[in-house]
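G., the chain you wanted modeled:
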Amino acid sequence: MSKEIMYLRFLQIAVSLMTPLLLFGIVQAAKGNIKLHKRINGGIVLVVLIAVIGLVLSSQVFGFDYNSISTDEAMINLGPAEMKTRLIIHRTFSNLLFITLLVTTFSGAVKKYKLHKTMGKLSLFFWFGTLISALLFF
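Predicted structure as tokens:
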């Protein structure tokens, strides 16, 4: 197993484990427990930021080549035949997730709750797109 796929497996497990926690945090907001919502979802944003930094460092500093991953190494292996296409689809979801998470977090912090709720829904869409594409493609 390549070092690239090992790191991706770690991320797959981490995001899979954080998904129920993310949903729990959203439920807490709906119940009015804003303090717990902020703690849970703030922690999730922090973990995502660390993962993004890890991906940048792994490719830029440590020389990981995610384009070299073979589709044969995929866990479930559903999706386009070429890994390049899989990476484009997955990165589209994950990059938009990162942006929407930042806007969602900022809008919640500055108490722009209408924008926060709208961006939260978009973040959730991109979260599941990122998770599903990661599980199926890698």
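DSSP finds four helices and no strands in the chain.

Shout if anything looks off.
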